[in-house]
Design goal:
495 residues; 15 strands; fruit ripening; alpha/beta; 18 helices
């Protein structure tokens, strides 16, 4: 009894200590709004506990939840080898290490900003040009999106996002800013395209929640759909934000990954085509860009936001001091992106490799009886596994996801983590692994589906046989009862 009391006292003391510590910390430190407990991030944690390795851990979990482009590293490495001055921080053979190592202001190196806007234009087929003075460098697209939230909205204001959307937005847009997200509900019946009615319904839903809508944010190409926005959708969005007097953020970090038709259309092209230059609408449209996906350099932390609003640019530039891109990184990449022969060749070859890898995933899943939403861009597919659910519910989706992670050994992202309205959809990445690893992943998923289907068919057969036997037994009982009643009725008559 004394040990029990001692244990209770110890537990109470720990709880009291935790409460005291909590009071000493900020609300931000103790709240649970980061989104780290999403299945999107939990899948990564399970992978890190048991990562697949061809030699050291061949039965481990294959990472298919990470949108990383590893298909064209050889092109980057070849350029570095052929340009030792850039990689060695030299100019005309002379070291500039000290120059780069010393303080640089937060406006960024002019040579890099010039090279970056030219690269952005080249990806878009030079259908639109960008002004380097309207570009703000940030430590990745995450920082760019959050910076725009700080610039455009107050705590408690709302942005509308079409579903399904990137799970990290719950962290990037909301966690530190206090901005709310209201979903624009999109559905598989029209391939999750944005509609006028869905935009209006989301706006009205925000008003019912007493939220002031400050804008719409879209990813183009879409994460997680892997599709580009159509001209019709882009026109809908521009018309909508013009009529409501709100902002539009177009996150275009996958713009260089479009590998088949239809071609990518930037929102800037739509604004120019509709003669919105020098209007309020022109100033309320902002673009987010990054080299994480197009060049496969997420570790370099190079992002940017582009705005026609001078005040947004000025404010974002001041805020960029909290997340600068290193001078060494800017110098190296300015040399790389200024090499037009290299960038043209890289964009073409990278898109070709993405197309091939995309086809491998789609065909591998088709062999397993699984279809994908038709897509033309990005580093992943939006995969339909609704037929594998035990019921049409998000609980069944999580159950299936756990089987795929733990039993099959594949980390994929469930649609519920992307706020999809329909259970059974999953985001599956294909560009962060070798062909051999992708083939192994497809073998695993096919074996799982074959086993699941066989078990389901067996259960259905047993149920049918059981039902048939039950009907036979029921028929026998009915006949016996009828004969008994008939004979009994006869005896009653005889009496």
């Amino acid at each position: 009894a004394s040990s029990s009391c001692s244990w209770c006292s110890s537990l109470a003391a720990k709880k009291g200590e935790k409460r005291t510590k909590t009071k000493m910390l900020s609300r931000k430190a103790t709240c649970n709004s980061h989104g780290q407990d999403s299945s999107y991030f939990l899948g990564w944690q399970e992978y890190e506990k048991n990562p697949y390795d061809e030699v050291r851990n061949p039965t481990g979990i294959i990472q298919m939840g990470l949108a990383e482009n590893q298909l064209s590293f050889d092109l980057l490495e070849s350029w570095l080898k052929n340009n030792p001055d850039a990689a060695g921080f030299k100019r005309d053979g002379e070291s500039i290490f000290r120059e780069l190592a010393l303080f640089q202001d937060y406006h960024g190196l002019p040579a890099f900003k010039n090279a970056l806007v030219e690269f952005m234009a080249e990806i878009r087929g030079n259908n639109v040009k960008f002004d380097p003075s309207k570009l703000v460098l940030t430590a990745g697209a995450t920082s760019a999106n959050e910076t725009l939230m700080f610039c455009l909205a107050e705590q408690g204001d709302a942005f509308l996002l079409p579903t399904p959307y990137y799970p990290g937005f719950d962290r990037d847009l909301k966690w530190r800013t206090g901005v709310e997200i209201v979903p624009i509900q999109c559905h598989s019946s029209n391939n999750f395209q944005i509609t006028e009615s869905a935009l209006e319904e989301a706006y009205q839903q925000a008003e019912k929640q007493n939220l002031k809508v400050k804008g719409v944010l879209v990813t183009n190409p879409s994460n997680p759909l892997g599709t580009t926005l159509s001209m019709h959708e882009l026109n809908l969005l521009v018309t909508f934000i013009a009529s409501k007097g709100i902002h539009l953020i177009s996150d275009e970090i996958y713009s260089g990954t479009v590998f088949s038709s239809p071609n990518f259309i930037s929102v800037m092209e739509v604004l120019i085509e509709r003669n919105y230059m020098n209007t309020e609408v022109w100033n309320r449209v902002h673009i987010v860009f990054s080299l994480s996906k197009d060049l496969g350099l997420p570790g370099f932390r190079v992002g940017a936001l582009y705005s026609n609003d001078d005040m947004v640019v000025a404010t974002a530039t001041k805020m960029s001091s909290f997340g600068l891109v290193s001078s060494q990184t800017q110098y190296l990449l300015s040399a790389m992106l200024s090499d037009k022969e290299f960038t043209r060749g890289y964009i073409y070859e990278n898109q070709k490799r993405l197309n091939k890898r995309h086809e491998m995933l789609v065909q591998g899943l088709e062999k397993a009886g699984i279809r994908c939403l038709k897509s033309n861009a990005s580093l992943f597919c939006w995969v339909d596994m609704r037929h594998l659910l035990s019921s049409k519910s998000f609980e069944a989706e999580v159950e299936l996801w756990k089987k795929i992670v733990y039993n099959v050994g594949l980390n994929i992202s469930p649609g519920s983590s992307c706020h999809c309205t329909e259970p059974g959809w999953f985001r599956v990445c294909f560009a962060n692994m070798s062909e051999e690893t992708l083939n192994l992943a497809m073998q695993r998923i096919k074996a799982f589906v074959d086993t699941t289907t066989a078990t389901t068919d067996s259960a259905a057969t047993n149920n049918n046989q059981s039902h048939h036997q039950s009907n036979k037994n029921s028929t026998r009982k009915s006949v016996t009862k009828w004969v008994f009643q008939l004979s009994f009725h006869g005896r009653e008559s005889e009496r």
